[in-house]
Each structure stands twice: as structure tokens, then as C-alpha cells.
Amino acid sequence: MQGPVQHRARLEFLNAIPPLPNYVAGLGRGATGFTTRSDIGPASAAPDRPAAATVGVGRGRGRGRGTGGEEEEENEDVYDNESQRFDEFEGNDVGLLYAWAKYDKEDEEWDAVMVKIEEGMDSRKEKREARLKREIEEYRASNPTITEQFADLKRELHTMSPSEWESIPESTHSSRNKKRRRFESYVPVPDTLLEKARQEQAHVTAFDPKSWAAGGTETPGVNDLTVVGEGRGTVLSLKLDRLSDSVSGLTVVDPKGYLTDLNSMKITSGAEISGTKKERMVLKSLIQAKPEEPLGWIAAARLEERAGKIQAARQLITKGCEECPENEDVWIEACRLSRPEEAKAVIASGVKAIPNSVELWMQAAKLELKDENKSRVLRRGLEHVPSSVRLWKAVVELAHEEDARLLLMRAVECCPLHVELWLALARLETYDVAKKVLNKARFSLPKEPATWITAAKLEEANGNNARVGKIIENGIRALRKVGVVIDRDAWMKEAEAAERAGSVATCQAIVHNTIGVGVEDEDRKRTWVADAEECEKRGSIETARAIYAHALTVFLTKKSIWLKAAQLEKTYGTRESLDAMLRKAVTYMPQAEVLWLMGAKEKWLAGDVPSARAILQEANAAIPYSEEIWLAAFKLEFENHEPERARMLLAKARERGGTERVWMKSATVERESGNTDEERKLLDDGLKYFPSFFKLWLMLGQLEERLGYLERAKEVYESGLKHCSSCVPLWLSLAKLEEKMHGLSKARAVLTMARKKNPQSPELWLAAVRAESRHGNGKEADILMAKAVQVCPNSGILWAASIEMVPRPQRKTKSMDAHKRCDHDPHVIAAIAKLFWHDRKVDKARSWLNRAVTLGPDIGDFWALFYKFEIQYGTEETRTDILKRCIAADPKHGEKWQALSKALENSHQPTEAVLKKVVVALGKEETSAKGNN
Asked: Which of 186, 268, 893, 914 has the fewest CB atoms within 10 Å around its CB?
């Protein structure tokens, strides 16, 4: 009785009201507030009661005071109700969160939203599953399984007859064959069985293997091996037929290729002999099943030939000729396999069996040794096959000219639709008869362009060039009337063919009438120029000339076409044709100064200076303010040792406001004449007008140096650098002068400042390296070179100098690095060529030197190096060739070449003289280098 009462008493404090808000029992004695499970669990008071309190217990316990028995009963009921709310899953926590909550409108809306979300997710899931199912069905429809592919065929198996079942070939799978052979046993056949088989052989001829395979009533005896063999042969032939043709009708096994393979094989081993036996059995079955098939006989004969049984091969092919007498391939094979003395008889039998076979008649003609006999055989063939163009061509080739003409007359009657026969006949006839023949050919072959082209060639050959163009024009018109499409490319090929045949007028007429076919107006210039360039590459110069001529009739004022045509004449024509071309060009384009200059130069090169002077006078009248014309006239007079004329021309040019080039040329004339005062005056005046033209500063500084005024020269160079701070030649001239006046330190300072202004200039780096080397500072020179190739990694002159600076054992490695960096730089190529030269690898050195002058034809130093090499290792012929090539290239640059060619003593020297002087200078340099080493 006391247990429940004590329990209720112990819980009374839970319903007690705290004395103060946030009251914590025992707080004064150091207690702290906390919340126990009983504060939030079933034991806590209901939230709707007014006296719910949170009790904090420290070291002591708070006590509540009851209000009477009713209150205790109420508390007991509350406890009992809470204790009854027990769930198997949640325990006493059931309904803890929603025990006192109400289901209101917001909860209803939230549930509706959640239901929609779930429905949307379910619909997307259904769509995704339906799409996945549809994709799987489409994939299976496009990629059916093997079972699905053969389902319809399996359903049709019940309609197959027993013979079709039997004709299905066996599987050729190797694993199944191995398994099958594993259980095969070979037992020798007794003689009694073979004897019985021979006795019953007479009864097997009436046996039909096909009917037996199809399920017939007659079956051979078990002991009848011959009948069984024939049945197997029939089945084998069916298998061969099935292999021969696929379902689509395309040949799976190529009989001709198979025969070719048989012809090229040779039997060398036992395995091949075994294979030959099997092939022999297969082919034997084939020719027994289909004796009318010629390829079977040919294959069998070649198989025996390959096996070395030539007699058996002859017997087989003879049998084939008997079985297939109307097949020319069998007869040709029999002719090949027969003995030489029997070949004619065999081929005679063939042409007797097939008199209309052109191939057999050609083979019969080949067997004859004399042309008369060959011609007789071919004429016999023409009696049987008069429409064979091949036979007519063969017999005409063997006949004399008169006989050939008669034969061709008959040939065109028998083969009127073959144009080659008509053309051959026209070539053999006289002019009048040939015209009639070609007219007949045009009536017989109205769509053949060759007849019109041949007619044009005929007229040209007889000197009627005026009619050539008319014939080609009429021919194109007639061809278009009968529906022939004019193919521009095909007609251009005919034009080139006419040129190769020597019919230039015909070529020009074809080009004139067909060059514009199918070409849009805006594309004509580009297309025609491209056509002419391609013809020039192919060596069809007359065709290219005709294209340019036609283009100039359309584009009279296009300077580029005139220049290309003039260049073509300069390369392949004569001086007269070039002069005529340029005269015509300046008539239509008088303002094109380049055409005037080209004409004057060609006259000058031809040695006709008065004509060149006259052309330049005409040009000056047409273009009075052209500086190029004035300078060309000055050069003509100056190079021909007419200084007064040159001075007068330059004076007029200066009066008319000449550019810096006019002042420079004027100073050059005075320098070569030795008039230093006039030269200085002209340079000073020129610098007033053109202070930024560095060449005038250079010329003035060089003048002061020549006169010994080094301080003045230094001032000139420094003044020039104020106006042209990036001019490398000025920096180099100043550095050279400082080195000459004050030594290395001043030159080093100038070059350092120059590199700061122009850090990417390889010439400045190379000058600094050489300055250090000249004064014996090898280590400093190496450091500078290393920096130089880092700053200018693609400079050929720096890499070439670095190759020459390193010791001999390291030059090969250095040259490989240089070639990787600058594989197309002529300086590097020449440096590598010198290495081969020093190693006496003559062929390689010559090849690399030739490559150097090809890559840099304007650099005279390489030509001099190549010429020096040929002096040492070449012949007079090679030296002459190098000299001609150098003169044609007319080099203007090169370190040593420029220094010598611009020297006063070498003024007006020809290229040949300058080349030989540079060669001498190279020899002196090499000798000096060897002495220093």
C-alpha cells in the first residue's frame, strides 16, 4: 500500500509553482540549474496546466506542498494516463512532438503540396522508365541477335526438300574438323573388295548421284566404292558451285585469280604435295561435274604444270579443247602448253573451231616469225572478222605505205565508226584526198572533235594558217549543234598535244576558241594566268604564250599580265620577240615605268646603248616626273663611262625635287671622279633635306676617314646616330673608328651602347665578339658569343661564327646544334660545308656549298667560297658553271663582297672580276688564320 503512495508523494514537487521566475533550488549554495528527462518526458506536467514548472536540483531537493486529496487523485490520474501511452517502437516517447498539436489549414496545404511533389516525381519516373524501355527496343530492333536474325529462316525450314537438306555444305570450322578427325580410323581396303568393285563398275553408269542425294529409290550397294566416289564428287561439285557464287551473285572465289596463283606457285615440300593432291581431287570432281566449264580444265592443267607434270597438263588441256571447243581461253592455254612445233597446229584447230575469235588470230600471228607470214595470217583473220579494229591496226602496221593506204581505205569501210583509222588514212593521203577523207570522217563521226583538229593540222601543214582558226571555230560550233559538251580542260590538252606535234597555229586557235569556256568573267584573269603558269611548268611554252596573248586582248590595261608575258618571252623567246612585246605593252600602258625600264635594260644588255637611251627618252616624255626613269638613265650613262651626261641628268633630277637617292647618286659620281669638295657639298646639302637618311651620313663619314680627318668622321657618325639611333651600320662604323683611334675599350663602350639600343641585332653582337678576338680576349669572346646566341637564337651568322670559334673536336656538335636552329640559313649551310671541305669530304662539301648558293644567291661570299672549292677539287667545266651561275645571280651582298665591290678601285668592275678578287681575299684570310694557329 505504501509503494504507490510514496511514488505519488515523490512526484508532488513536479507540479509545484516556483517562488520566483527562473528559480533554481540551492542556487545560493552553489547549485546549478539543469534539465532532466523527467522535465520533458511523460513525467512532466501537461502544457495546458497552469502550474507547470521546471525544477532545478543542486545539492538539496526542493519540496512542494500538496493542496488536498483531490489534487493527489488528479495527479495520480495524470500519471496513470501518461504511463498508459506506451508504444512498442517509440516507447514512452510516442506522441511527444504532436501530442498536443492541432491539424490546421496550413498543415492541410502543406500535405497537398507534398502530394503534388510526390505525384510529379512519380510521373517523371514513369517517363524516364518509358524512354529507357523505348531506347532498348530501338537498339534491339537495329541490332538484332543471331536468333532474331535467323528466326524467319528457321520458320521456313519445314518447307525444304530432302535434296536441299543434302546440298547444305558442311561446316568448315577447324575445331570441329579436329574433333572429327580425332575419331577417324583408317583401315586398308581388302583386295577382294576392290576386285568386286571393279566387277560391278559396269552397273554404275546408270546411277544418278543427284537423285540419290535427293532421296531417290535407287541406292548403290555398300561395297560399290566407285558409285560412292561419284556421289561424293557430285556433292563436292555442288559445294564448289555454292562457293563460286554468293547470294548477291558476286563471285566469292575468283577463278582467274586462282589460275594466276596456280601459275606462280612451286611445289617444294611434302605439305604442298599433299595439298596438291587435294586440289587435284577437287578439280577432277569439278571437270567431271561440269566438263563444259573451261576454267576447270585450265586450272587442272596449270596445277599439273606447277607439279612438274607437263605431259599430264597437255593431256588435260587437250581434253578441255575437246569438251569446250568454242572457248578461246582453252585454245590459247593449249597453245601455250604445247610443244613449239605443235603450237601452230593447235592454234589452227582453234581458229577452225572459232573462226571469229580475234584473240586466236592475233595469237596465230605471234607464232609466225616473218612479217609476211604474220600479215597473211592477219588478212585471213580479217576475212572472218572484217569489223575488228585490232586486226586492221595490226595488219596496217606490218604493211608498206602504199599497202597501208589501201588497207586503211578498206578498213574505214568496214569500221566507219573508228576515228583512228580515218585519221591514219588522212595522214597517208595527199592534201586534196586527205581533205575528202576528213570530210567523210566528219559525216560518219559528227561528234568526234579529232576530225576537226586533224583538219586544222592538215591546213597548217600545207601553209594555210589563215584557215586554221576558221576550221576550229566551225568545228566547235558544229559539235555544239549535235549536243557535244565542250570540255575546256580536254581541249587545252589537245592544244598542248598540237604544240608537241609542231602545229603551233592549231594550238593557238584551240586556245583562242576554248580558253573562256565555262569561266566566269570575274575569274578570267586569275584562271588564265594560272593556266599559263601550269603550261609553262609542263614545258608547253607555245600554249602559255597563246593564253597570255588571248588574255591581253581582253585585259589590255593589266600591267601584271604584260609583265608575266614579257617574262615568258625573256626566258623562252628571243630578244626581238621580247622587244616587240614590250613595245606593244608601252603602247597600251605608257604610264607603266617598269615596262619602259625592262625594255631599256634588255637593249643595254644586248649592247645596244643608243636604243636603250632612246627608250628612256621616250619614257621620260611619257612619265616626266618619274624618278625611276631618271635614275635608270643616269645608271646607263654612268656605267658606260659618260660622267658628264650622268651629272646633267642628276642635276635635272635634283631641280625637279629628287629624293634622297638622287643626292646619294650625285655624291657617288663625284666620289668616283675624285671631286671631294663637290662630294662634301652635295652630302651636306642632301643632309639638310634628308637628315634621317643614314647612307648620306655614312658617305660623309667615310669621306672624312679617307681624307684622314678622324675626329670629323667621329662627329659625323655621332651626329648621324642622333638622327638614326637604330642604324646598325652607323654604330659599326663608329665602333670601328673608335677602335682604330683609342683601342678596344672605346670600341667596347660604343658596341655596348649600340646593343642597348638594338638588342636583337646579330651584327652588333658579332662585331663585339670579333673585337674581343682581335685583341686576344678569347674567354670574353666566348662569353659574348654565348650571350649572343641566347639573345638571337635564330641568327645564322652568329651560329656560323660560333662553329668557327670552337675547337675542332667540338665543331661537329656545334654544327648539329646550329643546323637544328637554322636549317635553312645559308650562313650555317656554308659553315658546315667548310667542315666537310677541311675533312676532305669532297662530294658532301660540294653538295652543301651548292645548297648555300641556292638559298642565298645574293650573297657573293658564298659564290666566292664555292668557286675557290672548285679551283681546288673541281674541273674547268665545274668552274665555268659556277661562274655563269654567279653572273646570272648578280650578287650584291656579303661581308667581303660589299667591301671589295664598293671600293673605288673596283668601280664598274664586272661580276667575274669581283668574284675572283673575293676568292683571293678568302685565300689570304685562310693563310692568316693558319699562321695565327
From this structure: 186
